Amino acid sequence: MFIIPGIVGNVMHMIIVKKNMFAFIAKPISDRCFGKNKTYRGFIFLPLAMGLVCITESILYGPFSTGYLRDLYIGMGLGFIYMLSELPNSFIKRRLGITTGLTSSDHRIVQLIADKTDSLIGATVFYFFMMEIQAWETVLLFTISLILHFSISYLLVLMNLKKSI
């Protein structure tokens, strides 16, 4: 139940980006600092989508925290932290002169790992504090999430919803 909101929310977000839905809020937060892909749309849509997935899971399977409303807030917080956790990586890439959506030819592997782990680190830390899970559960959650992140990214590339893994 911990991973599903992130998967569903992000796939929905990729579809919305691909179809350029809600274009009126697809404005960069700061093109100079974070690039053109970090938009208000992401910061609005992802928390709402993850919150709705969490509340839907709670209704279908019972609350996974202390109640339905808290589950909604956890999902929304998760979406916000997920987006927020991507900003330092984007900021560093802009300072290094790496154009939005492109990969550094010199440090391709490092960039790939940073791109896949930045949001997961934030989400895992968020879950650790909000759900009071144990350290070993945090490591397991991060590991499974990372494997799924790579796998789903590859699938989204195959479906033409993403340009690269």
Helices and strands, with pairings:
Elements: H1 4-18, H2 31-34, H3 40-61, H4 68-95, H5 108-131, H6 135-158
Helix pairs in contact: 1-3, 3-4, 4-5, 5-6
Please tell me about this protein's structure:
This protein is an all-alpha fold. Helix content is 71%, strand content 0%. It contains six helices and no strands. α3 packs antiparallel against α4 (68-95).
User: Beta-strand level of the residues, as a percent range?
Assistant: under 5%
Structural class of the secondary elements?
A: mainly alpha
Average pLDDT, all residues: 91
Number of discrete helical segments: 6
The helix/strand order is HHHHHH
> How far apart are the termini?
24 Å
Large-scale geometry: globular
* Major sheet summary line: none
Q: Count the E strands.
A: 0
Q: Unreliable runs, pLDDT <50, ≥5 residues?
A: none
* Helix proportion: over 70%
- Radius of gyration, whole Å: 16 Å
List keywords for this structure.
0% strand; 6 helices; 165 residues; mainly alpha; 71% helix; globular; single chain
How would you concisely characterize the structure shown here?
The protein has helices spanning 4-18, 31-34, 40-61, 68-95, 108-131, 135-158. It is mainly alpha-helical and 165 residues long.
